[in-house]
Amino acid sequence: KTTGATWRSRPPSNSPNRYMPILSRVIAGQLTETNPLESVDNSTWETVSTVARSLNFALTVRDRSETNGVGQMPQSSFDTMIVTVEDVTPFTVFTPPTWGQGSTQTVSWVVGQTTNGTINCQNVNILFSSDGGANFSTTLASNTPNDGSQQITVPTIPDTNNALILVEAADNIFYALSDSFTVSNTPDFSFNNTNGDQSACNIDAVSYNFDYLTSNGFSETTTFSAAGNPTGSSVVFTPANLSSDGSFTMDVNGLTGAAVGDYTITVTGTSTSITKNVDVVLSINNGLCSSVANTTFQTSTTGVIFNTISNLNTGKPSGYSDYTAMSTDINRESSYDLTVYANSDGNFQIITYVWIDWNQNCSFDDAGEQYDLGTSANIVNNPTVNSPLSITVPSEALLGNTTMRVTTKYTAPGANQFPTSCENGADAEVEDYTVNVVASLSVGENVFENFNIWPNPNNGEFTVKLNSNSSDTIKINIYDIRGRQVFNNSYNNTSNFNEVINLGNVQSGIYLLNVSDGFRSTTKKIVVD
């Protein structure tokens, strides 16, 4: 949630540490709660924030009981702190395979954006527990760079199945835990999902990436399988098995028409002597959430400029404006300035956020899809304080049309009532636009003379014709809608280029064909029936 309490006051304690939620719940993987039962020690009704917001904390210290004191008067003091939660990739620790006592091993974690911007955590501490988290008295590394990897020496302890790794910010308050793992000299393997849970909406496939690790000389071949994917879909592993450390990808295909809902897919690694499971979640959505503000006030976005989109002096026709008929083409890995004009409806504060659904999953909650155009005040049809903001199209953004949402919202001074992508009824205005992501281009986008593709649609075989004045070779690259290359070839350049292209047994769908000659380049959509 974006407002309201997420933590509770706990009974007084002589411990200098306060874990939120309590450490036992974190170890159990219970980071959020919905309608929990009341607890005597106030350990329930605590949940981590899953959206960007500000949290206000107060710490109270007392030197003795406030009643029945003897001698000196009881004393107390307090201090306050504001914690800013940002919408970034979660800081997570990979669960190791079995580790042998005294061996040199590598602790791995996902850094995300924790070294950048306002988080700016450059160093971490790595702690070890052999008793399931009852204590983390063993320090494996102190003040080591927050770079996602650190070699350590495993403590010489008796065998245990309850080992845990805790990686904490050395100069901040956040931390992450591994799942329980084993310390023993028994050969073993493990695998971890590295790109998180996925969502799909109006796309046919999603991919999950995994790291595969062995320990203590494990050399058996592990074969991967999955269960729980949506009915009618198929799962492909690349590679299908591994016998040494490496990585693999799980593609879930055929999602068009899958029933809306959340699916827990159990990924199984099976070797001769060991079987292990890892669960991932696939969410099937049927469209973007609605977001409509109220019209009581004139708080609004009054103009948007993004590449070729220029929509100015719009006022506030309603709480939501559908401008998706306005579209612009943007290239992967290229940067574009985004300028938003807004109206604060008087001497009031407003916050403007923009979201772009880069992975086309009909959700704006993914890391890297939210942009802060700033907190402005007392403006009428003027650029927000962070305008123009440079937007770089991610290299992994899916090709094709997607939605850009712009929200300008009133906030009380100091309250930091941030806009959210799916809220309704706020003192705000919401606008949607279309952006079309095309493949990265190394040269300028210039259409060739007499450029033509026929037939289009086709059955995977078609002719490309164009005139070229360059002496360089003609390069043709073809990508599927997810940006995966399905064809590439180079041809001798003639002034009148005419070549039959055969894609073989590709699936039916939309593809993007890019042609370049070192001087000109153009990208066109083709349809394979």
Any key phrases for this structure?
529 residues, mainly beta, Immunoglobulin-like, 5-stranded mixed beta sheet, 5 domains, 36 strands, 48% strand, globular, 1% helix
How would you describe this structure to a colleague?
This protein is mainly beta. It folds into 5 domains: 23-85, no CATH class; 92-186, Immunoglobulin-like (Sandwich); 189-284, Immunoglobulin-like (Sandwich); 300-438, Immunoglobulin-like, CATH 2.60.40.10; 449-528, Immunoglobulin-like, CATH 2.60.40.3080. The protein is built from 1 helix and 36 strands. The strands form 9 sheets. Strands 5, 6, 8, 9 and 10 form a 5-stranded antiparallel β-sheet that branches. Strands 12-19-18-14-16 form a 5-stranded mixed β-sheet, with no helix packed on it. Strands 20, 21, 23, 26 and 27 form a 5-stranded antiparallel β-sheet that branches. A hairpin with a 4-residue loop joins strand 35 and strand 36 (521-528). It is globular, with a radius of gyration of 27 Å. The model is unreliable at 441-445 (pLDDT under 50).
